[in-house]
Each structure stands twice: as C-alpha cells, then as structure tokens.
Amino acid sequence: MDEKTLAHLIFEQRPLPPQAFDQRITRQVNRLVREEQAMKKKISVLALCVILILSLTLFGALAELLGLNLFEVFGQSDKRLMELAPKAVLTEVSPVDLTSSELGTVRAGINSAYYDGQSLLVAYSIQNSRFMEAFTPTEEQLARMQKSQNPGIIMVQDPQTDALILEWNKAYQENRPFGFALHEINPSDHTTAQGGIDLPPSQESIISGEDGLIYRIREYESPLPEAARDQEALDIEIGLFQIASYRYFDGQDVYEAFERKEAAPMQAKVWRADAAFRELKGEGALEGLPLSISAQASAVSIHLTLTSQEGDIPILPHPQDQWYGLYLSDESGREYRAEGAGEISGPQLAVSFEGTGQIPNQLFLKLIVRSEEQDILQALADTAPITLE
After folding, report:
1. Which residues contact 370 (CB under 8 A, 6 or more apart)?
2. pTM of the model
3. Could you tell me if 344 and 305 are in contact, meaning their C-beta atoms sit under 8 angstroms apart?
4. Model confidence over 187-211: pLDDT tens digits?
5. How confident is the model at residue 233 (pLDDT cuts 50, 70, 90)?
6. How far apart, in Å, are the Cα atoms of 323 and each of 5, 72, 111, 224?
7. What residues does each domain of the chain span?
8. Which of 141, 296, 349, 384 is the most buried (most CB within 10 A)?
9. Measured at the alpha carbon of residue 232, what is the angle toward residues 192 and 194, in degrees to the nearest 5?
C-alpha cells in the first residue's frame, strides 16, 4: 500500500475542509504508511478508511481527531507562520469546557504554539463564544443601568450575523424603544508563564467563523522577558472572562450595563523548539558617523542594533518631520518589515524586524534619513547597502 492510494481513498469520501486540513491528512497518511512499513503489519485499507471516514463526517470531528494546527490556517496568508507550523505542534492539548445558560457549552483551548527560547507565538480557539438576544429590562434592571455617553448608532461588522445591531440602529433612528444583550467568552489581554511572568503581547490576528467560533494567534514582544528566555519549556496561561453587555434605548436615552466574571483559564506546556539563532555583524556609516551593526536572527524575528563608534546617535533636528529609515533584506531577496521606528539610547539604535520563518545567512541594510516629501525609491537607489555576515 502506498500513500497516494490511501490518500485517494480517504479524500474521495470526506467532506470538503480547508486546504490546511488536506495538508494535515496527507502528513497523517504518510505517518501511517511509514508505521505500517516499519512494523511489517498488514493493515486493511478498507478498515482504515472506514475508521477515518466515520471520523471525518463533520468538520468539527476532523479537528477533534487530528488536531488543528492554527499556524497552518493563518499560514495561508502568512508564509512565516506556515514555515513555523511544523514546530508549533503541542504534544498535549487540554481544552477548557465552560457551561453558560446563555451560550450553552463553550470550548476554549490553546491549540498550537511556537517557542524558541527568545520568541513566543500562541494560537488558540474558542467555540460558541458569542450570543446576542433581544433585551427589555425590568424596572429594577433599568434602575441599575447607567446612561450612556457613547454614540447611539453602532457600526455593523457583519450584516449576516448582526441582525440585532441592524434592528437597534433602525429603532434608534425611529426613536423607538429597543434593547439587546451580548454574551461573550473573551480571552484576557495578559498571558503569564511559569506561574507569574507577564508576557507582553505585540500583535494578535483573529479569524471569526460561524456560531461564535474564533481562531486567534497571539505574538509576544521579542526577546521575551529575561525570566522566560532559554527555558526547556514554558507553562503558559491565558485567562478567560464571561462577559455580558446590556444596551437599551427607551426612545430618548441609551442605557448600558456590563457584567464580567472570571472563568477557568486556558493552559498549555510549550516545549522549546529545536530552532537555531544566527549572529550577523557588519560595519557602516550614518551620514559620516561610523557604526558597528549586529543582528540576532531567528525564524521569528531579527533584532538589529546599530552602535556609534564616535559618540551618541544624533537626534534629528526636525523629529516630527524626519526619522531614520532602516530597510532590511537578505541573500534571497526577502524583505523584512520593521516593527516600529526603533529606539535610540545614547550611542545605540535598536530596531526589531518580523522574520520570514527562515534564518538568513546574509543581511543587507540600507539606512537613510526619511522625510515626508522625500522620493523614497530614489533615496534607496542612491544608498549603498551595508552587508552583515
């Protein structure tokens, strides 16, 4: 039996999931074939396919059976995350089940994560996380609500799912009483490691699905706090909150109320990936000022430090209209996105760049003074790159 035959038998009789699941099934098929060959077993193809097809009847069942690596899902539009996906698989996934009279059963959990000793990215999902219903307060409830200073009209994000928001806006414009309640399970902005180390997030991406399903991937400032670096594993925790928001319009004024209570947190042990770092160095100048430049490069990020050899990095005379522009690429022509304008501290200028999922062998830096009216393409063309090796 070969993997193509087995894959064909499975794929022909399954529901149609996203491409990320196709890739996941292919890897599982390859693994099963290798195990069969190594153990010299005769496995019934029909029996194996029946087992898998029964489990693949529903999309959700597929996620339960094989696990869903969210790095692959977000990687469809972010090559860096797709590169990191094989090293983001967790050895154990422990979802949290919550019960709410409004939401029913909610399942939340950290699904996949990447940690290389310096950087951390965590992906998680929350199923059945959101429910809206019409709401008319009793006199007692209305007495506990506060008059709102927020605009009466609410922006509609999705007309297919925000029917109550559309009805609210219509009632508000018609001076007609109406109200709604929004029930949600939301993650905390804070992540802790090793029982108390606060990990500051830098960015988070969200994909929303039907019936209150959300996928999120959260990235943290790199390098991590010193206490969280170079550990064999990180025990991470993200808190969850059950939130209820009430909004009512009595025909004249808008009233609001908000309730929040803590729920069981999402937890996971993230083992350090077998990932390398590379130190690259070079020499250059900034408008005649000699610089030594060093970069710590990983698959996730590049931390660049420029050090003046003759005093402090100069502060530009018109900081509101001028800034230092740093443009970084590598030997393969990949360009790196700077995470902010950098930070000057005496003789040093430090800038972080988002990685590509691969570690570069060489870096090429173009350093220019930027201004609003500048022809940036011409300025870059006229600037010789500084090579870091």
Report:
1. 322, 323, 324, 325, 376, 379
2. 0.72
3. no
4. 999 999 998 999 999 899 998 877 6
5. very high
6. 59, 37, 40, 27
7. 3-67, 84-271, 278-388
8. 349
9. 20
Per DSSP (E only), the strands in the chain are 96-100, 104-115, 120-127, 130-134, 146-147, 178-193, 197-199, 201-208, 214-220, 233-249, 254-271, 278-286, 289-297, 301-308, 322-330, 335-338, 343-345, 348-354, 363-371, 386-388
**CA angle centred on 261, ends 215 and 181, rounded to 5°:** 75
CB atoms within 10 A of CB 188: 14
Contacts of 128 (CB under 8 A, 6+ apart): 103, 104, 105, 106, 107, 211, 212, 213
Residue 362 DSSP label = -
How many helices (H) and strands (E) in the chain? 9, 20
> For residue 204, what pLDDT is reported?
93
Query: How big is the chain, counted in residues?
Result: 389
List pLDDT tens digits, range 316-367: 777 777 888 889 999 999 899 888 777 888 888 888 888 888 889 999 998 8
Rounded to whole angstroms, the Cα distance separating 65 from 17 reads 14
Residue among 74, 105, 330, 312 at smallest CA distance from 206: 74
C-alpha span between 107 and 99 (Å, rounded)? 9
pLDDT band at 240 (very low <50, low <70, confident <90, very high): very high
Distance between CA atoms of residues 216 and 246, nearest Å: 25
Spatial separation of the C-alpha atoms in residues 71 and 114, rounded to whole Å: 9
Does the domain at residues 278-388 carry the CATH identifier 2.60.40? yes
Q: How many CB atoms lie within 10 A of CB 333?
A: 7
Side chain identity, residue 281 = K
DSSP 159: T
**Angle subtended at Cα 74 by Cα 68 and Cα 24, rounded to the nearest 5 degrees:** 35
